[in-house]
Amino acid sequence: MKPPLIDRYRDLLPVDAGTPVVSLGEGDTPLVPLTRLSERLGVRLFAKVEGMNPTASFKDRGMTLAVSKAVEDGAEAVICASTGNTSASAAAYAARAGLSAAVVIPEGRIAAGKLAQALMHGARVLALEGGFDEALAVVRELVERHPIALVNSLNPYRLEGQKTGAFEVCDALGDAPDALCIPVGNAGNVTAYWLGFRAYREAERSRALPRLYGFQAAGAAPLVLGARVERPETVATAIRIGNPARGAEALAAMRESGGAVEAVSDEEILDAYRLLAAAEGVFCEPASAASVAGAIRRAEAGGFERGAVVVCVLTGHGLKDPDTAIAASADVVRLPASVEAAEEALLG
Question: What is the pTM of this model?
Answer without folding.
Answer: 0.95
